[in-house]
Specification:
With about 1000 residues, the chain is of the alpha+beta class. Helix content is about 35%, strand content about 20%. The chain has 28 helices and 31 strands. It binds cholesterol (CLR).
Length: about 1000
Amino acid sequence: MSSNRLVGMDTGAGYNHTKVAKQKKRGKPPPPPGSESDQSIDTNSLSADSQDAGRSPNSSQKITSKKGEWEILEGLKEGQRFDLVPRKFEGFLLKRRKWPLKGWHKRYFVLDRSQLTYAKSIGDLARGKLLGRMDIGMSVVSTKARRRRIDIDADTLIFHLKCKSREVYLQWVEQLKQHRLHKQHQILYNKDPAKLTSPTSPSDDSPTDPLVPGGRGSLGGSLPGSHPGTMVREGKATPVATLTSAAAGAGTLRSWLMDSAGLEQLTRDITTTQHHLHQLTKLLYTIDNHDECSHGEPTTPSTKSRRKFRLRKHKANKSTSGELPIPASPGRAVTVDQVDAGLPSLQVDGNLCELRPLSSSNPTLAMPSSGWPQTSRPHSYSEASSAIVGGGSGGGSGQVPNTPSPTAGSHVSHHAAPNPPTITLSMENTSREDFTILAKEVVSQIGQVLRGIQSEREKLRQALESESNLLASHSTTTIIAALRNSLNQALQQNAELRGRLARIHADSDLSEISVPPSMSELLHKSLHTSLSYESSSCFSASEYFDAADALSDDEGGGSDTSSEASSDNSSFTSEASDAGTDAHPSAAEIEEDGKCFTGRRTRLPAPKPLTEDFSVWNFLYKNIGKDLSKVCMPVTLNEPLNMLQRMCEELEYSELLDKAAGLVDPGERMVQVATFAVSAYASSIHRAAHKPFNPLLGETYECIREDKGFRFVAEQVSHHPPVSACYAKSHNFTFWQDIRIKTKFWGRSLEFQPTGKVHLMLREAPDGGGNEDHYEWNKVTTCVHNLFGGGQRWVDQYGEMLIRNTSNGLTCKLSFVRASSWSSKRHEVFGTVWDGSGQELHTLFGKWTEAVYCGHAPSAHVVWRPGSMPEDYHLYFGFTRFAMELNELDEDQAKYIPPTDTRFRPDQRCLEEGNMSGAEVLKTQVEQLQRERRKQREEAGEEYVPMWFRREANNSEESWVFTGEYWNKRKDPGFINMTFEKLW
Ligand SMILES: CC(C)CCC[C@@H](C)[C@H]1CC[C@H]2[C@@H]3CC=C4C[C@@H](O)CC[C@]4(C)[C@H]3CC[C@]12C
């Protein structure tokens, strides 16, 4: 299979695989535990040999890693059942801090009916002060025995846990296994939706409930093929909800039968009793026979039975002091002692019935004063036992908590006494005949109870069957129809919303944004672009601008910003003034021939080929726990852009920087810069399904956006680890960053943490009083959720971003809020701008997908909104207009760009043209060539030196600095006159 890695991942698959395979053959032992990282499954800590991903005997998938072993707990296999209701389990565990995932907190966890909840302490738990809850039923649980680590990924939530001791670890793993399997069993076999949607506390109907739609840990969403949010517990009358609630309507009868464990236990116990009583009958026979044989001593019972009575007495005394367990549930009534002692006692319906010896020869023993025909009903077990064994005299009587009734006491004293002679006496008083009659009676009575229970069960079973037949007739087809219906409704709503949004955008009053007079003319054109929210060149003036000419006139080098600024200024200004009077083109004008009036394309040459996505996800699933950088990725996972282009996409809303540069107030400048930093994430919302190509080492990408006034160049500067560096320059700003992405695979989600800082140099304020401002900030974490669920994959961004103006000490702290199962909120971001002395200047809030506002609601104003999506964007990998244009290559441009430019990369081009199989073949070739080049370099002992960026290391932090040579060489001698390493 051809290979391709997730972003930031190695492309040297073949090499690594052979290495691992060799190790295996030689039977090399795994590395010592000390070398192990405590990080979860991430690209730096885990690699795996696919052959090793076999199954461990204890229902988990073992993944051998370079530095340790992670095992994934297996789910219920086909045909497998797990009826056993696991018990509640609780205790302290260490939980990794949420942010920034460093350090561990001790937390109290409770696992009950597949719900894992935790609180700070037992006290908090009792008070209901919970910190979190997840349903582990459909989660991915990975364990690492050596580190006593347990990671649970339930889509929206991930718990990273650690146990204090191995013993605790083993217990938790076992319990998690059981609860998970039982939940899966319930999902598969228990068709009671009411039960499925009821977590631990049935009364808890809050929207934070992970099983309730909106709480995204919902089972509905996790079940393969199910539509997230269609399993509705209450309210909303979606067709599926109606179905489920209809089913739940007959819930009482059903749940009665479902809870048959108690009944079954009762049946089993009674059967045992019956068996024992049969034995008793036999024994009595023996006694009878024995007595008959040993004629002459008819009043003395056998030594065997005497011994038994002594034992019984001893235990009964215990019981009076409360040590003998009092049955808590029906079905536990008859103890072996009682039965063995020949003292029949039976519990039915939770009441203990003493089947007292009835004597035909001694009627005073037969009928209690209560007038019950054959049984007396003591009030408690101890009462019953003392009634039976005679708490009335001697040993234990004083300790009996429930004093037997005088009646009971009086006749009991005949049966039992603290010492054998009394027993013998009482035995003598009771005729053998009594025992025989009694035993027979007990047997027949129990038989009767059994028959009664059986017929009761049968009735209930029949009721249930007829009910489920009714439900089954609704079943699959109806549910599918219902789902289809709601899907159609959603699509319709979506279309409407899009229309409305477009109208809102069109009417948007952002044109009122005040731009200082000196800059307004200059920026008119670019602002115009941003106002329209059509974030592409469609509205630009590039038709008046010959890129090639402009570039050949352009001076080179990026180090001297002021000289560059002036030259840029002229081109930018001229563009702006030329185009300043442009009216908005109509949608028809834009879409004509698939090109807008600028000549740029508005969509890709072909829609995304239809591929069986499932195989891809299956494939990924098989690779859980492996170092994904070493796993070959099929091209079907890719979008026809690479990471260098993706970096350029961050400049889609560069107008915000233009605006910032035109402002005088440092706080307001920061507001624009912060919003720009947020806007970088906007495009990822529709892009969860595909990954960008990994650039090859030495691959470059340039993008000249004369309409936006910037030019951008990027290069893949390192392969191990993969690092992409970029540099963009405009009249108003300089932007640069190098990106290295750490990837963590949690099972159901993939987390991407870009390391390194983004830098921005903003032109001095227009009043001329200040200097350039240098800003720097970090990236937040991107997470792709629901990798394997039946539902949609979706992207989340979370973490804190700190933007610092290193020139004047202003800061802005932005929080990207992680979507949680506790709230329906997604994509939220908020932050504050502070001055150097810590005084709050501005407040920002909004969503990285929708808008950023400044101020406090309701008077807050919009700072930014993303552009509307092109029509049919979902057919084109979810690309924005800007993204659609990134890989476009016209003949003219082709003459000026180097052969290393991404736009010449054949596999990516092939995919863009909709030729999936061709892309697959080409990708394999291209990656093979890269491996060969690396091998050659290694053999020659050469170190790779990137062409356009220079590595600089200060205090262990490395950064990649643009040399500026790219533009110089482009001009002179021109790339066409240079030699380059052949990348493809
Ligand atoms: C298994 C596959 C399909 C997962 C797809 C992962 C994709 C969606 C991930 C992988 C790496 C991610 C990128 C990592 C870094 C950045 C830089 C940031 O400033 C903007 C978002 C951006 C550009 C992310 C966008 C989403 C991204 C491209």
